[in-house]
Amino acid sequence: MTTAPVDPMIGRLIDGRYQVRSRIARGGMATVYLATDLRLERRVAIKIMHGHLADDNTFKTRFVQEARSAARLAHPNVVNVFDQGQDSDMAYLVMEYLPGITLRDLLKDYKRLTPEQTVDILDAVLAGLAAAHKAGIVHRDLKPENVLLADDGRIKLGDFGLARAASANTATGQALLGTIAYLSPELVTRGIADARSDIYAVGIMVYEMLTGEQPYVGEAPMAIAYQHANDQVPMPSTKNPSVPVQLDELVLWSTSRDPDARPRDAKEMLDRLRQIEPEIRGGQLHATQATAVFTGSLLGAPVPLGASTAATTVLTGTALAPTPLPSPAEPRSDVDGDGPDAAALTTAASKRRRRGYWILALVLVLTGLAAGTGWYFGAGPGSYATVPQIVGEAPDDARAALVDAGFTVTDEQRSDPEVAEGLVSGSDPEPGAQAQRGSELTMYISTGPAIIAVPQVVGAPEADARTQLAAFDVSEKAVEQFSGDVPDGSVIAVLTGDGEPVPDQYAERGKLSLVVSVGAVPPVEGALATDAEAKLTQAGLTVEYADPVFDNEVPKDHVKTADWTEDPMVPGSKVVLTVSKGPDLVAVPDVVGMNWGEAGPILRDAGFELSYNAIADVVPGAFTVSKTSPATGESALRGSEVTVNFAGF
């Protein structure tokens, strides 16, 4: 089995938040990917502008304009825009993810739609467009590719890449933009677009839904543009006789070459659609504009008039069906009905009308049943199946389940932080969603967690570090540690789940923990012991005391030394304090009157250094101490010098 080349964007983390999963679609300006918003844990569609357009300010401006235009709209029939930004040289736009198809996909599968289906889609499109027009936004690129049909039945209008603020004369400012098949005459000839230009594009879409083809075709784009500028869009019923007159008239009104003859905006067209909708759905027989000429518009806009013939019926503004003609086999005796056969003719005509109505009703019922059955199993609920739950299964088992459910399957690979390598990580449409039987479904096989770069966060505040590491499973509780080099609240180190320093690259959603500084251990040397203990306890450390010692320089009851018992120090670690007993003072012994042989050892044993006449060491018993300095009984530092004087000297 061969696999398609892996898109380099697959698995990439954008702006530290959006993990790209798979590609959805590619257009001339950007590519749309399925991604996971790691911060809010939801799936989104992320639209990334092509790299070769990154240096084109015009495209960049249009890309940002799409975000701003769509973000101003909050409507159930408009695709929501969540975010827009720049990651390195890559501009991106984040939108809600709608699994499903486009109107273009639907038309490719079914060629043309029924009037009822057309009304359903048109109602949603006009509702979303009305919200845009009310907000002063002209879409300028309406086409079936930009109408999204979600699997859950929602219909939304997207791609506001060419949207501009609406005014009476909103010019493109450059070459024609938008798809040529849906451009209004004023856009072709003058480059001017307003809300009525959107209405023209809607009318072309309605024509295409009802007939299965666009009104104008040509070998060159300019040939199609010429027809838009010079021809009147034909009635859909000329291609599809089953189109009701109301929709014929709606198309003619919305595609008038004169913008002033069209609806002012989508709201006006939506109001008229909802007026005629009950008649379209009511199963009545409607004359089409292929066999009727209107002297006035049913929809409030002028319609081209033509000469009445025997094959056509001239209708007034409120007429919807032709009046039955008299039978040729029953000649009229008087145009006013006053002749002798007038009553009989009236009775016979009434019977024929009643019989015709019953036959018509039966035909409509049978036709409705056949159409309803065909629709139910061809395009309605009966044609859809639920995508089986296959996440975590072996590919062969999952593929068999999908085929049994009625789908065709293609394989793609993608990374998944939760599903083991080689197992199925999901599908598109997702498991549990509704999808049409026989449609192609993508089954994703996990390659395991993606190995991605780990941001350098040492020295960064803890909150910033957690944001940058959003692609990983970072422990909620950080490891606290004292540090004299890293500020309080900043990251000292990042550790793996095994407690080892994290490498430069690590598995997506892999377990990590942060070591965060709580500042330096408070310095307490020289402080009063009680104050030092309070300061260390407040910092989360425990305190023990060593035996106090004399210190000639540190005052009594002050801390001489504070020793750590652990490295590195963490809250709860122990600090051992050694407290000073103050200077080591000793009283000078009374040795006055003693001979030097007795006095010298006593003074030395008391801890003093002695200063005396050296001759006393020669004849110790011959000399008697007359005085000492310091004097007898005075206190002096142990180890200090005492001067001894002898009698006779």
Automatic annotation (TrEMBL):
Its EC number is 2.7.11.1. InterPro entries: Kinase-like_dom_sf, PASTA_dom, Prot_kinase_dom, Ser/Thr_kinase_AS. It catalyses: L-threonyl-[protein] + ATP = O-phospho-L-threonyl-[protein] + ADP + H(+); L-seryl-[protein] + ATP = O-phospho-L-seryl-[protein] + ADP + H(+). GO terms for molecular function: kinase activity. PROSITE patterns: PASTA, PROTEIN_KINASE_DOM, PROTEIN_KINASE_ST. Residues 380-447, 582-648 form the PASTA domain. It is an enzyme of class 2 (transferase). Residues 319-340, 412-437 are annotated as: Disordered. The chain crosses the membrane at residues 357-378. Pfam families: PASTA, Pkinase. Keywords: ATP-binding, Kinase, Membrane, Nucleotide-binding, Serine/threonine-protein kinase, Transferase, Transmembrane, Transmembrane helix. Residues 18-280 form the Protein kinase domain. NCBIfam families: PknB_PASTA_kin. This is non-specific serine/threonine protein kinase. It comes from Agromyces allii.
